Amino acid sequence: MHIFYTPDIAPNATHYMLSEEESKHAIRVLRLQPDDHIQLVDGRGGFYTARIMDAHPKKTLLAITEVKEEYGKRNHYLNIAVAPTKNIERLEWFLEKATEIGIDEISLIQCQRSERKEAKVERLDKIITSAVKQSLKAYHPQLNAMQPLSKLLSAAFDGQKFIAHCLPGEDKVSLASQLQLKGRCLILIGPEGDFTEKEIADALHNGFKPITLGDSRLRTETAALEACFEVNFLNR
Amino acid sequence: MHIFYTPDIAPNATHYMLSEEESKHAIRVLRLQPDDHIQLVDGRGGFYTARIMDAHPKKTLLAITEVKEEYGKRNHYLNIAVAPTKNIERLEWFLEKATEIGIDEISLIQCQRSERKEAKVERLDKIITSAVKQSLKAYHPQLNAMQPLSKLLSAAFDGQKFIAHCLPGEDKVSLASQLQLKGRCLILIGPEGDFTEKEIADALHNGFKPITLGDSRLRTETAALEACFEVNFLNR
């Protein structure tokens, strides 16, 4: 069944009209007919089944036939803060894979050694939406625009805070040994070239615990995905 | 330090001559000079440090100054058999990431629902080599050319055999609950559209255990990477 992302649907809606763009896609591209059924996700846990009442190519009218709330609700909360990669496709790949595996929030950070100074959130968000639909998620991960690392470090976060870096450090422990299950966590992943010593010191000063993600030398986006994988796996 | 992949180096070599292509890269592109040091990996666990004796742009001569054997040797053996994706870039991503995270062998399989009928092993192997160098691995994963699933199913394999599929099945258990640590395993990942019922039945008949990789609906290459993550994580 075809799936549409409809963030503006009201929780108790009995009917819904697809946007002009989605209507065109449904009727002109997918050639859906009256009485065909489609699925909707609202990005906030609502998973709807709907029947096409009026197959209008600009204003497709739907009758909601079934609603599931908190569909696929996760038992923990994960925010990964990552420095966008020089090659933006690597970040895009991470966003798609993290959405499939399970993530709540992605925060883009600007670090001292970041080679990329800007990232287009709107385009990146579309990649997340596409992965949401493809993997049948009812929750849409939140993507936060790029901010300086210092700002993120000093912001309040209700949960565990970790920094994954590659500098030698006796005090680094595995994420698995530290993670409180079913809790909330924020994990920092540095840019190509890693965090600077000062950035790490600032993070520790702000209550971030240093962690390692295993012995392999991982690219930025692989480290971010490894963290995502570990948190989801441990919370199963 | 720059790293080169030199599969033909003899284990006890005191000297080594870079190939014409690698010599050109070292001298013309990287502009290395006599007495500069580089690193070599042989793909079989040998990790060498070498000094440039003659910076010849076609025949760069090296003196081996240090050898580490069984560098980063893994405590288990993992073979993932995967159907190449329609979009070959998705398979390429998997090969790069699996090499970074840790894998010994990748077997390309042709399934009934495979949309892609061929895959150029030489090109794919170059992607693995590039990831080997980037992530400082001394072992080069082996890539096996595409073969029909039936052939792989009936071939001997000394270790645990699993099939990850998406059909409902009461008997599916998590990989984590079944995996014998520090052992050898072969995991089958199906094409977009999954294995057919007959393929699954044939696999079970040949001693493969059905497993699940969690509750998320994953793309082919994400499922393959999830399996790779799990096996490496559990064997840490």
TrEMBL record, chains A, B:
Protein name, UniProt field: Ribosomal RNA small subunit methyltransferase E
Residues covered by the Ribosomal RNA small subunit methyltransferase E PUA-like domain: 18-63
GO BP: methylation
EC main group: transferase
UniProt similarity note: Belongs to the RNA methyltransferase RsmE family.
Keyword Manganese annotated: no
Ribosomal RNA small subunit methyltransferase E methyltransferase domain mapped to chain residues: 78-228
